[in-house]
Amino acid sequence: MNLPELDSRAKWTVHVVDAATGEELLSHGADVVCETASIGKVFLLIEVARRLESGELSADARVEIPEEHRVADSGLLYLMGSQDLPVRDAALLVGAVSDNLATNALISLCGLESVRAVAGELGYENTELHDYIRDGRGPGLPWTPSFGTARELSDFMRRLGDRELVSEAVSDRVLDWLAAGADTSMLADAFSLDPLAHLEPEYQDILLRHKTGSTSVTRADIGIVSGPAGSVAYAVAANWKGRTEDLRVPVIDAMRAIGEQIRARVTGRERDDWSLS
């Protein structure tokens, strides 16, 4: 794989590996710590799944939304007339639409410190879900909801795909929640999947499990993608905090270029094969 042109005005972390062998396929700033927006929610999902498997939580238990952590934007729950959800459905909303309100309810249920500790317990030193989702981040508040490096996040997705995180049952729960992920606007756009229906292998027999994160100064996409010719685990994040320009267009263009190379590798098809079934 070849690194596409990356806009130098952004801070990048990129790491792509063969999911079966761990072979490094592409790397740039793999150990650079970036803000990762909603990416850290995967660690919350690990903790929720672990508690469901251990019996500490019931899948049918209703989640409570603390008034001090009510937020809008990403997700659907804040728009719903009924916000009385069981744990399993709140986790599904996080996996499917990165729901901020469901995220905060589940963090409150599990405890922020417990959720913060998950990444470290999995062996990661520079990656974490760091805080609740907040409408604003003033003085005295944690600097970001989540942060990480592409090397650690691609490793997370590779291990998740191998069902090695905590247990096979925990990994399976998280993979099921991520399977409904509807945001294919970044790197995964190159796979040409139906954004709302790709639970099973879809276009060119591609199977995707991934998580994205977006803010006004961040784009991030991590995942594991499989096809007839192989499997790849990837993580790409870019930040442009402090810039006067909005760099989302050149950033997403580069992410899609990486995604196209991943698509070709896992399907064994080049661009001129796209029209083949």
From TrEMBL:
GO terms for molecular function: beta-lactamase activity; muramoyltetrapeptide carboxypeptidase activity. GO terms for biological process: beta-lactam antibiotic catabolic process; response to antibiotic. InterPro entries: Beta-lactam/transpept-like, Beta-lactam_cat, Beta-lactam_class-A. The keyword Transcription does not apply. It comes from the Bacteria. The keyword Protease applies. Residues 14-237 form the Beta-lactamase class A catalytic domain. It is an enzyme of class 3 (hydrolase). This is Muramoyltetrapeptide carboxypeptidase. Transmembrane segments: none annotated. Its EC number is 3.4.17.13. Keywords: Carboxypeptidase, Hydrolase, Protease. It comes from Agrococcus casei LMG 22410.
